[in-house]
Design goal:
484 residues; 5-stranded mixed beta sheet; 4-stranded antiparallel beta sheet; repeat; phosphoprotein; U3 small nucleolar RNA-associated protein 18 homolog; WD40_repeat_dom_sf; rRNA processing
Length: 484
């Protein structure tokens, strides 16, 4: 059966700056497929036609008032009121016309618009979404979690060690499993949305409800197996790179527009593969060859600064204040660069490491984790790594027997997820306050995780997911955390 929410995009064509978008009167799968192949400039219109762009806009806008404030043109001329309830939105924009119920609603307050979007989303999903309804047969904690998705910090009680309370859910991408190995799973920074991407040349977005996880949108990038895809810091754009291609893609989710970036001014690299999104937004840190890192601005598509270390880069991680970046080299040395002055301010050897493979920093500024080819993951004090030439690990985690290829801290900095893509079921969760490994994950009578190549937690740690070699994104509910 044809996937009517998939947008196919050839890699050899570019969008023009002034594309006129027309909505087809009826949907004919074969005819639409021919049109897609003929003209990539109709990508946005196809996305709008099937309603997925509108659904995504509603999910993202409805997730938090602050994001709505950023994404919508708000102030009317000469409007003195500055409160959230008084700021008004122009409803004549083509992505908001479907929310208007009469000619008198040419403008609308933000508060009213957000409520209208919630109502429209519930209607499009056949009623109130599952996370907004109470089910007496489900655990009370799960219902409470899935009802509360606002943008606030979840101050939970201390996470117990030993056994992590979790519930296995339907795969995050069960509505559209990948036909090849998944390389990316990432939760949206503010909306109840998760993204997957992989070698089947697709990027997909799903609503996370823990029960059906319906698909929102899929885009197909022809002859472009996705090595890595990441949300921009504001959550409006997806950046996708491939394996052996200098070109990369930018997917504007609000406009439904996919833009190939064929060249970057000032970048002398044969390919763009590894990258990190800078915490301050608007920039990417590209991993080059021979120890180079390049700071790229998304606005101008040019390299504004480059840094170099000895040996090849195997991973980067930003400090909690975004001022420093930790760079792990394959030679087993960690470099600390100041992003503002572009100077190396510290350098140390990862204890006992022969070849480095990965690195991650906790959001609270307390921990730094370094992975190695032997499978050992060293956990350091981030402060010691900034100031000491010879920091000693707080803990050497030795539960992985093959290369530690993925490291991710949860948002509360209480859990470190570690994984090796070289072996089935090689995923562990580390309880950071006690520096001990949870004994009950993964535990199953049959294989479920398989080989994990990417790990992520939802914005407030309510969910944990991973991307595996079977094309699935297993999803788990962490019962300790009350918020998404």
């Amino acid at each position: 059966m044809a996937d009517t929410n998939v947008i196919k995009l050839p890699v050899t064509e570019e969008r023009g700056p002034a594309t006129k978008r027309a909505r087809p009167p009826q949907f004919d799968p074969e005819e639409e497929e021919q049109n897609r192949q003929k003209n990539v400039k109709r990508v946005a219109a196809l996305g709008e036609k099937d309603g997925s762009v509108k659904l995504l806009e509603e999910l993202v806008f409805g997730a938090e008032a602050e994001l709505l404030h950023r994404l919508v043109e708000v102030r009317l001329p000469h409007t003195p009121c500055t409160s959230y309830c008084c700021l008004r939105v122009d409803m004549k924009h083509r992505y908001r016309r479907h929310l208007v119920r009469g000619e008198a609603e040419s403008t609308m307050t933000k508060q009213k618009l957000q409520q209208r979007m919630r109502e429209q989303f519930q209607k499009s999903m056949g009623g109130a979404p599952s996370w907004a309804e109470s089910d007496e047969n489900e655990e009370e904690e799960e219902d409470d979690l899935l009802r509360r998705t606002g943008n606030f910090v979840a101050f939970s009680d201390t996470l117990p060690s030993g056994i992590v309370r979790m519930k296995k859910c339907l795969h995050a991408n069960s509505a559209r499993p990948s036909e090849d190995r998944l390389t990316t799973v990432q939760f949206h920074p503010s909306a109840q949305v998760v993204m997957t991407a992989g070698l089947d040349q697709s990027v997909s977005l799903f609503q996370v409800d823990g029960k059906t996880n319906p698909k929102i949108q899929s885009i197909h990038l022809e002859r472009f197996p996705v090595h890595k895809a990441q949300f921009s810091r504001d959550g409006e754009t997806v950046i996708a790179t491939s394996l052996k291609n200098k070109m990369f893609y930018l997917y504007d989710m609000m406009e439904g527009r996919v833009t190939p970036v064929h060249s970057v001014r000032g970048l002398n690299e044969a390919r763009v593969k590894e990258f990190s999104v800078c915490p301050e937004g608007g920039a990417l840190l590209l991993t080059g060859t021979n120890g180079y890192l390049h700071l790229l601005t998304l606005k101008t598509k040019e390299v504004v600064r480059s840094m170099k270390i000895n040996g090849d880069v195997c991973g980067v991680a930003f400090s909690h204040d975004s001022g420093k970046v930790f760079i792990n080299s394959e030679e087993g040395e960690v470099y600390v660069w100041d992003m503002r002055s572009s100077r190396c301010v510290n350098r140390f050897a990862d204890d006992g490491c022969v070849k480095g493979t990965s690195i991650a920093a906790s959001r609270n500024g307390q921990y730094l984790a370094c992975g190695s080819q032997s499978g050992v993951v060293n956990i350091y004090s981030q402060e010691a790594c900034l100031n000491s030439a010879n920091p000693k690990p707080l803990k050497a985690v030795m539960n992985l027997l093959t290369s530690a290829t993925s490291l991710t801290f949860n948002p509360t900095s209480e859990i470190l997820a570690i994984a090796s893509r070289a072996e089935d079921e090689a995923v562990r969760l580390v309880h950071l306050p006690s520096l001990s490994v949870f004994s009950n994950f993964p535990v199953s009578k049959r294989k479920f995780v398989y080989r994990a190549s990417c790990l992520d937690f939802s914005p407030h740690s309510g969910f944990f997911s991973l991307a595996n070699n079977k094309g699935h994104a297993p999803l788990f509910r962490l019962l300790h955390y009350k918020d998404f």
